Amino acid sequence: MTSNQAHHNYVAEGRTVGFFTDPTVCIGCKACEVACKEWNEVPEDGLIWTGHSYDNSGSLGGATWRHVKFRETENPVGWTFLSDVCKHCEHAGCLEACPTGAIFRTEVSSVYVQDDVCNGCGYCIVGCPFGVIDRRPQPLPGAGGAFKCTFCYDRQIDGLTPACAKACPTESIQFGPLDELHARADKRVAELHARGVADARIYNPVDTSVGGIHAFFLLLGPPEEFGLPPRPEVPTVYLRGAWLSAAMTSVLALAGACLAFALL
Amino acid sequence: MPGLGTSFGRGGATTAPSDLVNSEAILIMGSNMAENHPVGFQWVIEARERGAHVIHVDPRFSRTSAMATIWAPLRAGSDVLFLGGLINYVLDRGKEFREYVVHYTNASAILPVDVQDSEELGGLFSGWDAKSAKYDPNTWSFQRSPAADRKPPSDATQNPGGHTKESGARAADLADYDRDPTLEHPRCVYQVLKRHFARYTPDMVEQYCGVPKERFLEIAEAYCSASGSEKTGAICYAVGWTQHSTGVQIIRSAAILQLLLGNIGRPGGGILALRGHASIQGSTDIPTLFDILPGYLAMPKFGPDSSTLAAYINRYRDRTGWWSNFDKYIVSLLKAYYGDAATRENDWGFGWLPRVTGDHSHQAYWLDMMDGKVEGLFVMGQNPAVAAPNARLERKALAMLKWLVVRDMVEVETASFWYDSPEVERGELRTEEIGTEVFLLPAAGHAEKDGCFTNTQRLLQWHEKAVDPPGDARSETWFMYHLGTRLKEKAERDPGPRNAGLNALTWDYSVTGVQREPRVEEILQEINGYTGPDRTPVGGFGELKADGSTACGCWIYSGVFPRLGENRAGERHSRSAYGHGWGFAWPADRRVLYNRASARPDGSPWSERKKLVWWDALSREWTGLDTPDFTKTKPPDYQPPHDAEGDAGLAGDKPFIMHPDGVGWIWVPDGLADGPLPTHYEPLESPIANPLYPAQQINPAALKMERPDNQYARSPDPRFPYVMTTYRLTEHHTAGGMSRTLPHLAELQPEFFCEISPELAAERDIESGGWLTIMTMRGIVEARALVTPRMRPLRIDGKTVHQVGVPYHWGSRGLVTGDSANDLLAISEEPNVRIMEAKGLLCDVLPGRRPRGAAALDLWRTHMSHSS
Fold first, then answer.
1. pLDDT at B768 over 50
2. ipTM score here?
3. Predicted local distance difference test score (pLDDT) of residue B158
4. How far apart are CA B246 and CA B683, in angstroms?
5. d(CA B171, CA B188)
6. What are the CA-CA distances from residue B643 to residues A253, B639, B649 (Å)?
7. B70 lies within 8 A of chain A by CB
8. Cross-chain CB nearest to A74 (options B65, B750, B789)
9. Chain B 737-756, CB below 8 Å of chain A: which residues?
10. How far is C-alpha A38 from the geometric centre of its chain's CA atoms?
């Protein structure tokens, strides 16, 4: 079984990789957040106390690429932690919306933003059904441009594990070939069900236009309870319909104009 | 440390975090292991995934509780009551591991008629002297049938307790006593224990700890069933236990429980003392404590016991057991210090060591500093202005110094007190009136120097310098070495008796590079020890001698550098389940201490499942999965000849080789200042009277150090109705110097907050996300209000007791700032190790922010003066 600490050759092999994040072993330590920022030189983006449990990162954004969610429950008292990240969708809304070609799909099928090509138009931001990618505000370095998780593409090219997975002390974040991770995840859910954790399920919306996510999660309840959309859609899935509507409208408008002329 | 040291023989974790995967049950108490040992905690999760119970008992529901299988809320300061409840559960239901208890503990030892337990004397043990406020440790010894050739006990009444081993001259009566192996004699330790904990019932636990009875019984059944030849349980603790006025006795309760359940020295068993920093274990092994020398030898105390080396050795050397080698270790240490200047004629330079004349611990000398009795101070890699209790007093005391040297990577609050502190803001200190000359020197970070950490599992790991420190930043080694060199140059010009020690001191490490950094490997080699004029390394402490032919800087580390070029602390190729080949664990790379106890008295494993170390009859030696913590060739059926000494004086079925009788101590006859058994006392401030002993509210031997600038609330006190506990968060590092100054950490927890229950928030009209103000008899702070159901109100003796959670990482400097929780704590000393009581104090909580400036103190004084 591939571990987070092993060297690999996935980029050269063109193998599709993924993250499987399992909150049942997450201790909410935020090593993933810090490792990501340290490796990728992502700037600090706000010394703001939110008052929301222990989560002061708030959400994913242009300068937060790993975000640990904290969920407190009562009766009985409980606390769940889940490390959120860019989903690297099978059909990625950001990639489809990008007009400059800055966003492309890598050899390992991750979705990568080239900061030096991005023109800051922001189309990708409305294109993402998960609210992941965002522009960095002033005065952060690179302000104006859109940024998100790179899947540590530079590390992967050198056979290394992404920083977050490498740092995770309990292997809540698991990195590896996507098919292998799916097998592991299914086994884990079966294990949890056998132990009486009936709520455990995999979050990987394959039956939507997103077509599945390469960074997928085990959840202990419905996705809405973890701030995830139950049926995410890629906005470009409405394009055909939208163009058709536009075309139909213009035909009708032309027909109407001709009719108006004819009746004059 | 003395809790583990007196119970088993060594003051350190008995096992490693990775061994927890072998546990059937893990009890985590006085600890937030997931948040403070996140990497080590992976083994707890692994154990849980293999089906182990993970039990967390804590005033708060923390990130550790979230991963546990059972959590119980606990009133801070009631730990002895809870653990005593578990002991009672075991004894009441006969769940002890009988064979282990009979052979491997002193449960069978018989106490003389005149030794009285706290249950008989209303909260005191026999031997209490009210005038000196001390116990006479001679009164807790075992019964010995008379014999002509026994030595009388020596005078051990001075300063009992402390970090060092204590027995020695009294070893004769500690090894050779009357026993009843059937455990039925009414005065045997086992029966005394039963009577002692008889009142610690599940009802008592519910009523005074706040743990619901069903939850307590669930925990007791889960934990106490992990016992016997096929199962083991482990206990993990940290400063939630040690930072109490009864800290050592809390740990002793756990030690008694583990001895009764037969868990010490076995895989998946043991007690994991989770230490607080990367190398805090190292800083007690090679101590930064005033009362011990390297390897837990005692600092000589001023008095007849230290007038000569012979008297000192006589005081501390045991006749039987491994401490019979005490003389070899002190002489080798002196030879390391003084080299050729140490000769047999001058007692190997013993006279040059300073003598302890009183309490020179942090809190005691800081009070002296406050009273103007201390001229100068070095503060290195510590920030008492934020991290030490009664921080207002800590900061004010700095202003009484003539000079202060602070070495750190940033300008911490301890260095800036004179112009940036609450005292300056409030007008209590005026910059222009402070006479202290402050030197702030930049320190190197850990990647900028060679060195060695000793972590919580006694593992030495060498780390290599990656880059030179920038600018003027230098390592501690550089600083101490070059300071020492200059001091020695001065001493050479002034060779009177006062400088004799300094002149005799060997100080000959070579230096390297433009910065002239001492070669740290040479220091490690000296710590390992060597012999002969060419300094051949010794292979281990077994080669040390008392004749001046060997030198050794720390006997417990000996073996880390057994040959030139072989730095075992730097090894990184693990070749066994216990990690042999990665680093070096003291002593002698034994990973699980007392592992002889993992085998039956006859030397065979207790079970195939729980085998660790066993006797191989063919090769006539101990073997197994770990380095045996036992003489390799001593057969299990060895019986010592009459009057045999040293290790030869211990039988082949005695695993606790540091003790003169070779067994684990359920009853501690010697070595602790506050009792041979743990008993429940309330914290120094408490919402209730002691339910067990109306006449003895608190630990009689604890020191409150009460004075006008260090005051206490009454117990209970209507001005301060809530119980407060302090703790750390994963995101910050202790006093915050290394985390409040780093953006990627500061942004994770930017503000000082306080956790309270929704019930308390309603009672005090506090809004979550808003502000609140906390007051104690020591000070006033403000914090953001985090209202959460993870803080539970408790029912204690029919009343509601609220607990308040206060993380302590903030100070006035850095990217993120805030009030310091330590402004609220009192200076106090547990009697054995002199640690303050940082959890279980009384406070009040009000909505809103505190006033700015001096008005804050006005509000605080008004509050203290309220009628009560």
1. yes
2. 0.94
3. 45
4. 8
5. 19
6. 115, 11, 7
7. no
8. B789
9. 743-751, 753
10. 20
